Backbone:
């Protein structure tokens, strides 16, 4: 079951946000007919940078993806959800595992294919994880990589974001921001009121344009758009999405070659996220970069969708944690 977190919750109080999550759990249990009186183990995917000190313990380091709820940074997010469940009078749900969405994706894909040695998120946000030689899974938080060259549009978007000065790669790659980058370019070119509201042009709109569907322009209030303007819009969307895919490809290639410098072995990269799964040509653009970099060896890297990997991975991790006392210590 999916629930939408509205902007007022993303940027409100932490208590309100976690009360909403707790209520979603209650609504889900009611829908599938499971009594809240039953003892239930829960795996909690939390897709933000966390200092994790145990299988079900972790303090939020910083918000990303437009979240800015107060009273959460520096706090144990498992305890915050526990407290919210208590406020909702739900005592039977036990949070047994806390994982990042990238780790969930890696766990989920590895469960079905043991060749998987990297988990990647390419959706609203972007991140990756991989297992080091000692077996520890490293959550990279690569969205905060800051060595990329920015355009004036990138700089402007960053300055006006919820977290200026941070997560430069994420702001150039992820679905949260691609539409906004495109909007800023369109506003600069055309200056019309249609593109004056921040985040009014979304990555989903770009995806429609990329597939040749310009009906979204009518929905945005634009009428009698010339064929030239349509082609220009499509070209801008292609440039923004291509840059995103190429940066993603270089980031994936960097991790794979860190694990295997000569590409001696085969590597399966499990990827979750609407950008990778749904944006026309996104996967092909990544694969093209691999071909340019590695030639015939590019076939050693396989990209595969891990559908709802973060959720499935949380379930698998929770099942392992609840059945193994060593994890519960």
Residues:
């Amino acid at each position: 079951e999916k629930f939408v977190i509205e902007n007022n919750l993303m940027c409100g109080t932490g208590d309100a946000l976690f009360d909403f999550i707790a209520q979603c759990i209650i609504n889900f249990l009611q829908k599938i007919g499971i009594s809240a009186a039953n003892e239930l183990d829960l795996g909690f995917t939390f897709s933000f940078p966390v200092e994790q000190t145990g299988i079900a313990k972790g303090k939020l380091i910083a918000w990303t993806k437009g979240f800015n709820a107060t009273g959460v940074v520096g706090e144990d997010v498992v305890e915050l959800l526990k407290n919210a469940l208590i406020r909702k009078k739900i005592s039977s749900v036990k949070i047994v595992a806390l994982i990042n969405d990238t780790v969930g994706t890696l766990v989920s894909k590895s469960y079905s294919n043991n060749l998987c040695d990297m988990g990647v998120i390419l959706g609203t946000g972007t991140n990756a994880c991989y297992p080091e030689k000692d077996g520890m899974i490293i959550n990279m938080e690569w969205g905060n990589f800051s060595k990329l060259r920015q355009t004036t549009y990138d700089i402007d978007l960053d300055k006006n974001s919820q977290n200026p000065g941070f997560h430069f790669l994420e702001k150039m790659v992820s679905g949260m921001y691609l539409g906004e980058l495109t909007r800023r370019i369109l506003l600069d070119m055309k200056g019309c009121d249609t593109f004056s509201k921040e985040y009014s042009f979304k990555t989903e709109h770009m995806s429609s344009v990329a597939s040749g569907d310009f009906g979204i322009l009518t929905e945005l209030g634009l009428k009698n758009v010339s064929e030239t303007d349509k082609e220009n819009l499509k070209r801008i969307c292609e440039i923004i999405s291509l840059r995103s895919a190429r940066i993603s490809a270089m980031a994936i290639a960097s991790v794979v070659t860190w694990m295997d410098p000569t590409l001696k072995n085969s590597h399966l990269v499990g990827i979750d996220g609407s950008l990778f799964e749904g944006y026309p040509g996104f996967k092909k653009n990544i694969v093209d970069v691999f071909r340019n970099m590695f030639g015939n060896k590019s076939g050693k890297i396989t990209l595969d969708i891990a559908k709802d990997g973060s959720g499935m991975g949380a379930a698998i991790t929770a099942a392992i944690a609840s059945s193994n006392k060593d994890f519960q210590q």
